[in-house]
User: What shape does this take?
Amino acid sequence: MPETYAKKVGTRTKPLTLQTPPQSSEFTMHVEEKDGAEVLVCTVGKTVLHYQLRVIADLHAMLKKHGDWMELGSADEQKPAKDGTVEAWARSPKNPVKGWYGLKKGYRGRVGMYLPPLLEHLGLAEVTHQARGNQMRAK
Assistant: This one.
């Protein structure tokens, strides 16, 4: 992933503030080093989720290849993801990391909720902002 994306996401002391696709809640994102690798840190209230930083570039590439709108399908790790959604792709053994992009056991889901606003902020995707059933596509 180009280093410029990591710099646009924010730091622990100056995180990026975003809103969920329905624009009903705020959360923050930043990049920090964990176990010798840069990771994406998403903070929602007191809950902290960690994702592989490469999810930004991998999701953008998948959306470009998909070529059309794709349902987000956000779900917690413990719940199944609807087939054909961003969330299902982020857990699939067929994605570039061959499984979960989430790094914290029990909190590996919700890629379909928290990554689309980040890609939109970075100018990589368009995201719908309805109360339910949101979608995204690559720019």
Q: What stands out?
A: The chain has a mean pLDDT of 94. The first helix runs from residue 3 to 9.
